[in-house]
Amino acid sequence: MSKKRLATRAFTAAWIICYLGSIHPALSWDQLYVFGDSLSDSGNNGRYTWDSNIHPLYDEILAEKINLSLRASDSGGTNYAAGNSTATAQINPVDNTADQVSAYLAASNGRADADGLYIHWIGGNDLAAAALNPLAAEGIVSTSAFAAAGQVQTLLAAGAGAVIVPTVPNIGASPALLEAVIQVGLAPVADAALAAAFTSLNSQTTLSQASRNQAIYQALYAAAGQASSVSLVQQAIASQLYEAWQTLSSQASALTDSYNQQEESQLAQLSGNIVRVDINGLFNEILSDPAGYGLTNTAGMACPPGVSAAVCGASTPGFASEQAYLFADGLHPGPSTHQLIADYIQSVLDAPAQVVALNQATLAMSRDARATLDGHLQQQRHSANPQGSLNVFGGYAGQHDDYAGNLAAGEGNATSHNLTLGVDYKLTDNWLVGGLVSASNDSQHPTPRYDYKMRGWLLSAYSELAFFDNGWVNADAHYASANFDDIKRTVKIGPATRTEKGETDGTQLGARITTGWDFPVGSLLTTGPIAQYALDYSSVDGYREQGASSTAMRFDDQNYHSQIGALGWRVDSSLGWFNPWAEVSYNHQFGDNVWRAGGGLKSTQTTFTRDSARQDSNWVDVTVGAHMPLGDSVAAFASVSQTGGLSTGEQFMYNLGVSARF
């Protein structure tokens, strides 16, 4: 067998091995663990939304989004949440998150699953207890907030990976508060008053805060009608009830804010991956614009007064179906609201894993500039270029990348555009030195919900040395600066779509050395091995998104270390008017093969990190090109390159340039 056929088969085998060996699974957690109260309970004490046998809760929806399942711990699952739970045993010795966390760690020999995702959401029942005991309210709130944060610390200390800690939504906005006002203020006719109030409330749309308040007043007026049929008396009672509701609502809102702030303060002192999500902020946004989230009524409830969502369904007598309700009963969200919560949490979780794509833009810019440089140097090696020659060259390079499965939020693509202008001088017959400047203007769409533009420039110095007639070695080093603007992160929460925007800067330092040996095969063909080593350090500054919504985030600095070694074989021809060449190389990443970014909501102090799926460490590049003289001192060059063996997408590169000798 000839050496040429042997080399061809060897590289074909290497390509197949690379392709089969480089398939990595998409990023995922191995299990979801939940601790909390009725908002999260999937069956320990009940399922608290209407028709819960057919409607999933937010945590079950989230589990499905990350390809997991979730079952109640009483059924052998990992959801320890239980209805009526509090943060401390002092308030509820039977059901509390302190015992839930202890039970989980006892079952796992004191070690938390490092590859698991955790939810710790507690506080609603603690706030209810505080509201019923005004003299001790602040003490109850502080004790519970400290206890909740301490349980998160316990999970992290035991080795938990990422812990989602939602804020508690404002209990002052719940129908339960309105029920309490009517029950106390109209105790002799409470049942009839409640029925009248919610019949009125459920018949109205509340598409703004103003219309919501008006609907609540009208509901209290209807309730007052059960105590008196005299219009003036009815109005006086309704006004007193409305004033009482406003006062209690403000107090409950203040308690909610105090709890969330105190828990936040304690969480900020912890180390570890804490995914703080602002459900309270989301609820406030829904109350301001419910129609945008597919809801029409935020004050009433689908279940009749006194009937828990755990036992309520569309067939329950008195079930209200005329509106799209935020609440199922006095305290618990309806199925559509659970979907909104799950979508929101998912958007926060995904954000850092989307932002990691920024670092890849500076690497793309350096690849483009190097492709143009390589085309020029290849043309120079096979053309007359005597000592003292001055060469000027310019070229366009671009690439198209298809991302598949390497980011948390789906497939995407990126397209780069690069212009390079360079000049070099032949110091001796064997030694060339030069420099170039390169500029890029790229549009990147790495995921369906993350887009940005990158504008940057690159300066590079390079040299080529020929030795022993058949050998050559190139070396280049560069510095690149990039501006990322028009960054858009699209967030979908149910039917609502919002876009968070930002901008930042980045830099890159890199160096590369390439060497090869040309064996002559007749008078028109040379072939031989090549070897290359490239080292690049990329950095992207952290940035804060420009909005102030519950989804607006801040992101930390990113650093990426690429260290690629390559071995290959190339064939060059010297046909005269047209000179094609081809190269196959096997590449290995010795540097970082995981993209990592950290961040958190702007409204919080905590930070968490996300990793992309493990990137391919091995791949094959196949490049074909040609150079063509356009006269005695001008030549054109071009090439295309395809990357194979990548489980995380495809990469196609192309460049076209012209050089002139003086």
What is the end-to-end distance?
A: 46 Å
Average pLDDT: 92
Radius of gyration: 33 Å
Q: Which strand order do you get reading across the main beta sheet?
A: 5-6-7-8-9-10-12-15-16-19-20-21
What is the count of helical runs? 12
Helix residue percentage: 25-40%
- Give the overall shape: elongated
Give the amount of beta strand, in percent: 25-35%
Outline the biggest β-sheet.
12 strands, antiparallel, barrel
Structural class, by secondary structure, is alpha+beta
Question: How many distinct beta strands?
Answer: 21
Low-confidence stretches: 1-26
What does this protein look like?
This protein has 662 residues and is α+β, with helices and mostly antiparallel strands. The protein contains twelve helices and 21 strands. The strands form three sheets. Strands 5-6-7-8-9-10-12-15-16-19-20-21 form a twelve-stranded antiparallel β-barrel. Strand 6 and strand 7 form a beta hairpin. Helix 2 runs parallel beside helix 11, helix 5 packs parallel to helix 9 and helix 8 crosses helix 9. The longest helix is centred in the middle third of the chain and has 37 residues.
What secondary-structure arrangement, pairings included, does this model have?
Layout: H1 3-21, E1 31-36, H2 58-65, H3 97-107, E2 116-121, H4 124-131, H5 137-157, E3 162-166, H6 175-185, H7 190-202, H8 209-224, H9 231-267, E4 273-277, H10 279-288, H11 335-355, H12 358-381, E5 390-403, E6 412-426, E7 431-447, E8 450-467, E9 471-493, E10 496-517, E11 519-521, E12 525-540, E13 543-544, E14 553-555, E15 558-573, E16 579-589, E17 596-601, E18 608-611, E19 618-629, E20 634-644, E21 649-661
Parallel strand pairs: 1-2, 2-3, 3-4
Antiparallel strand pairs: 5-6, 5-21, 6-7, 7-8, 8-9, 9-10, 10-12, 11-12, 12-15, 13-14, 14-17, 15-16, 16-19, 17-18, 19-20, 20-21
